[in-house]
Task: structure prediction
Amino acid sequence: MIERLKKQNPKKLLIMLVNFIRMTVLNIVHMGNVNASLVQNINPKTEIAVRGGSKLTLKHSVFTRRNVSFRVEGGELTIGTSFFNQGCSITCMDNIQIGDNCLFGPNVVVVDHDHEYRYTDERRGNHYRKDPISIGNNVWIGANVTILRGTQIEDGAVIGAGCVIRGKVEKNTVVINKQDIRIKEIQRINE
Result:
């Protein structure tokens, strides 16, 4: 183990130390509500917010790039050993389960709630509709995907870039957002 550490880049060793301290503090401050392995590869610019009564579980070796956000606001978020590219945002008010060996492309958004927009009074922005999200093992989610409440993505699925997903995605399937792109010539007006 010591020999392996000696071969590491000093910057990587510093990040490992910062993560170790960060996970220790998270576990202590949120005793009983946070269960995070002390060995993580979380970028220092990753936001982790756990509000009162929420529960966060980070299994061994969650890997993030910069500007990733994990927010748990009254729900339960469990993340397996997975990779999150820059700009990913996971916001949990109910229940989000993410399996092992998942790959999240840049700017993926996962939210298990919608605003209740039918109110016309002061309650309009303060009420939510919530449904759990389940993402299985070995799932690959492309760039700029949005995963909405009530979604179940089974093992081995691939979600193509730019998709908006709600509902069930069967195991070992590929979902693509086929856009009909038309290119037409501009008819210039010469006066």
Remarks:
- Residues 10-29 form the longest helix (20 residues).
